[in-house]
Sequence to fold (315 residues):
Amino acid sequence: MPISTARVATTRPARYLKQLVSHLGRKATSSLATDGRGTITFSRGTCVLTPSRDQLELIVTAEDLEGLAGVQDVVARHLLRFATQEELDVRWSAPVAGGDLEIVDPVAGDYLLTHCTPADELLQELVARTREATGGAAGMQIAHDEGAFLTMLVRLTGARRAVEVGVFTGYSSICIARGLPADGHLLACDVSEEWTDIAREYWERAGVAERIELKIGPALETLRALPEEPSIDLAFIDADKANYPAYYEELVQRLRPGGLLVLDNVFLGGRVLDPAYQEEHHLAMRRLNDLMARDERVESVMLPVRDGVTLARKR
Ligand SMILES: C[S@@+](CC[C@H](N)C(=O)[O-])C[C@H]1O[C@@H](n2cnc3c(N)ncnc32)[C@H](O)[C@@H]1O
Fold:
């Protein structure tokens, strides 16, 4: 589905939003959410309107480019008509397909990858072994710069007790465990014996096996069985996306104040932005991204690292 955005500078974003939702809602379906956002659904596409202090953001999605142009036209014309007291400039971005969005241009991404502390031989060997042993699934492994970022976060936060949801063949767990002190502990959760057999082998070889406790089984059960007091310093979530909101809830209450939650793939290759994607994991990630931005238990920031990484620090 093509998507196009316009960020319109204005002194009256909420007022125009209400006028648009109310007026265009006569011929289309429209709604106003409690957080101030509006949605207008036409037969040809949808416009989501978000007010902020000094601008009105419009995101239009449609089945095809013709529909997109039609929705852009009707929304922009009415907005300009309502703005009798100021001159608005409505400039739409070139249409993109939500499922094809990359946060970072691949060329820039490659530059980032080659400009951090390089992966050592063991991690490089693990990458090759994972490709050999798991074929297409190897794409699930985090990239090296994200691994270096994880190690740095563990060191910077001084974490001693960590949790990982989604081990696969152990790349990210090695990166986390390497940042922990010698008496640190990483609880690593996964459902696959087959993939984590490779992880175990590499944990041994990396000299971090003693710091890692592997729990095989649905991670939600493992997390729910943990003591409820807030004792976790850092947790990394990189498993089945539909369960992210549930993992977040279980972990956020067990994080100590100042503890850090790191969530991978929060951008879902751009599909979080594209209402065309309505599978359970798309809805779950969209819901969680919205929740984290408002959740008073944490302060959070979404970073353009690989497929999107959110850091949520417990207050
Ligand atoms: C994206 S991979 C993790 C990649 C890993 N972090 C790395 O750097 O190599 C996702 C992992 O989550 C695991 N997984 C999927 N559903 C799960 C569940 N319900 N509970 C625990 N682990 C699960 C899969 O077996 C898979 O190994």
